[in-house]
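for ur thesis appendix - MITD1 protein. copy paste whatever u need, i formatted it the way the template wanted (i think)
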Amino acid sequence: AGAETVKRAVQLDAASRFQESLVCYQEGIDLLLQVVKATTDEAKKHRYRQKISEYMTRAEDIKKHIEKEKQDGKYHKQIRIEENATGFGYEKLFREYLTEIVSEVWVEDPYIRQVHQASRYLLYNFLRFCEMLVKGPCKVKTIHLLTSYDAGSGRSQQISVLEEIKQSLSNYGVTLNIDFSSSIHDREIRFNNGWMIKIGRGLDYFKKPKGHFSIGYCDFDLRPCHETTVDVFHTKHTKKM
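the 3d part is after this line
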């Protein structure tokens, strides 16, 4: 298993898919270290250690390369979520970018609204996202939301729900600033540590649950997803609304 994993790492490395390659190198090295511990043949141990040393050196070089890309504002990682895939709750997708220094978040999504009863989950999705921010490990103090107004009679309910979320967040020391735009189209989420995440479907990439008591209703990791693409960037400066 370790040999296959590092073989995959080398292939990804050659294809310049460095982030994925680094993960495979790290997993492969861990597996090979377990093999070394279980091997009694000293000659084999020596060969394994030589290879592990080579892979560790390459992994460190890739780490430095990725860090330089971040510093230069050139970092780009793409995640493809397949139709009906599970395991892509908000914590899974965002947690590695929510470092302790994150105190301010910008959310641009035109569909944080309730067009009709069947779309009520859009506002719940935003609430779930806010819950994730409150849990940490980041110390978020301000969330900026830019969205569009709901149509017709749904507008008053949209505003009412958002105001309720705003009040609830204030109980946790978090300020929610809400702005509306009739021309907003793009969907993106930015953190003040330089990370920017663009999701093709915004926060609404989960499928509607089959029922209020079906598996996946409460736990987004178990909720099937719509097919979408997630692009992650790192920039030196985060644009502010």
